[in-house]
Structure formats: structure tokens, C-alpha cells
Amino acid sequence: xxxxxxxxxxxxxxxxxxxxxxxxxxxxxxxxxxxxxxxxxxxxxxxxxxxxxxxxxxxxxxxxxxxxxxxxxxxxxxxxxxxxxxxxxxxxxxxxxxxxxxxxxxxxxxxxxxxxxxxxxxxxxxxxxxxxxxxxxxxxxxxxxxxxxxxxxxxxxxxxxxxxxxxxxxxxxxxxxxxxxxxxxxxxxxxxxxxxxxxxxxxxxxxxxxxxxxxxxxxxxxxxxxxxxxxxxxxxxxxxxxxxxxxxxxxxxxxxxxxxxxxxxxxxxxxxxxxxxxxxxxxxxxxxxxxxxxxxxxxxxxxxxxxxxxxxxxxxxxxxxxxxxxxxxxxxxxxxxxxxxxxxxxxxxxxxxxxxxxxxxxxxxxxxxxxxxxxxxxxxxxxxxxxxxxxxxxxxxxxxxxxxxx
Length: 406
What we know:
Radius of gyration: 33 Å
Helix content: 40-55%
Number of helices: 13
Distance between the termini: 26 Å
Number of strands: 12
């Protein structure tokens, strides 16, 4: 038999049972699409996390009161913890002791409600700081201007706000130059920060930044700093900058010997590495889940081809009786299985690209090119592998037994 006739018999066999063929192709399609979409979700999630961390900068360090890890914690001896102060911030700017520190910014945080007419909002981030904060935190503005060192020294009531805060208070109006009241104090909006988006935990655009002296004079009083933001000279000197700031603060806070430090240092680069590892693990797990559906599709091919062989046993016997070689029978059924997986693979890739254009569980999927080739290639191999046994069984039928089959 010629290759053309073998191919014609294969297509005829699939066309006869159109519904069965369609359902088998659907199984492969779902498997391939699942691999592409779920890996895209994992990749999109990873990129979203990385983008959120990059907003702070991989050469940034954050210092917070309290030892034994970053963040708030319950302490039995809270009175022994020396708070972070402006003087600590100034000490970290000493280039002779900290040559790898580029700049330092104090952060005083508070909670407050801002009001404009009948509109109110409670920003998730309400900071008092000074101009070094902008570069250290990668905070840029899309309109207006930053407040200056002179604004800080004069304790002027000016503010930068994020897009979420601007929309809540001013709607579609331009907020620059307008006034708002936060915690009962009137501020003039001089800048609108560039949209940051959500980090998954809080809205990065629900933001108000004011001079730290203004916050101390009008809202919080002389309270300890919440954090100190430190920027290393470059990403490769972050560890050196951390060692330098630790040494300076240890000396200022009287941390010697085995005494536990009363501050914590948060290394952005370390978090990025941890987050990347976690995201890779998450993406791998999603890929494994998707691969199971592809495997199920392969089992479906085996099942459908075995049923086909049983239904066409008599036909196979007749063809072998009139001289059809074993190789022709084997090739026909392998081609049928391969066509099923090939068609399912193509449709699965299309479905994967279409499905990846929608936001899934708050995450914008980002297709991994390798996953497309991998899923498509595996679908073809599955067709050959899972179609091999039914094809071999069909080719091994003895003509006399096949002819007797009813």
C-alpha cells in the first residue's frame, strides 16, 4: 500500500466516528491549553511580584525598630528597645563610616483620613519623610513637583499623593495646586506620583507623602521613626552597605557582645531571591497539575484507539487477508493517533493564547514561549506513545481470527 492510501484510510477511520474523534481531540486540547495557561499564570504572578519589589529597588535596605526579624513583634522587654531617630538617619549619611551607602531617608508613618468636600479617603500609606526618599524608593511623579529640602526645613504643609488618593478626593479634576485636609490639617497638593499598582497586599497608589517636619509639628509630635530607608550605591554593594549600617546602629544603640540588636534590617535583594524561588516552585506545581490533564488526554487516545481496533477487527482481517502488510496496518493506526494529538495540540495552543489574554485570579498571565513548544511537542509524543499499543494490537491480529470476529 502507498503512503497516500494509508493516510486516506486513517482519515476515513477518524471521519466515520466524528463525535468520538472530536471528544478525543477536546481532551488533548484541554491538556495543552492547561499547560500553557497555568504556566502563564505562574509566570505572570512571578513578574508581578518582581515588579512590586523592583519599585523599592534591589539595592534598597529598610531598617525598623525591633530585633529578631523584620516587622512588628511582641516583646517582653519593649522598654529596652531604643527607637530609631533622625539622628540615626543622619549618622548613616557619614561617608567615612558608610562609603557604600548612597542616601538615607527617615520614614514616620501615621494613619489619617483625608477630606475634600464630601469626599474622604484613608490612604494605606501616609508617610512623613524628606527628598532622599524619592530615589531610594523609586518614587517618581507624573505631574507637579516633589517637595524640597527647603519645604522640610520650613515644615511647609505640602503633599504628594498617589492616583488612588487623587481619584477618591478630586475625581477627574487635576489635583495639583488644590487643597485637602488630612487629620484635620490642610495641605496643598504639589505632586501626583506615577501609578505603581497593587503589590497584592496593598494599593501602592493609595499614598500621601508630606515633609517629616510637618508631620511632627502637626500630626504625630516627636514620635520615633517607623523605618529608615537606605539606598546602597549599587546593587552589588548592598551587602556591604548592610554591614556598614549595622555597625553604625550597633554603636549608637549600645549593641555589644551577645546582646540582641534592637533593630531589624530588611534586604530587598534577599527578598527578591526568596520571592523568585517561591514563584518558580509555584509555577512548577501549576505545570505539574496541567501535565496531569495532558496525560489524561493521552489515556483517552489509548481508550478510543482500542475501541476503534475492536470495532474494525473484521475490516482489519479482510485487509490482511487480501495482502495488506503488517506495517501498513500499524502505520494507519499510528497515523490516526498522531492526527488526533496533532489536531488537539494545535487547538490547545490557540486556546492557550486566547485564554492568556484574560486576567485570571487577579493575575495577568504572561506566556512562557518554551511552554508552547513543550506542550505541543508532548502532545505529539503522547499520540505516538499512547497510540502505539492499539496500533500494535491491530497489526498483530491474525487474519483468520479477525475474519471470525462478529
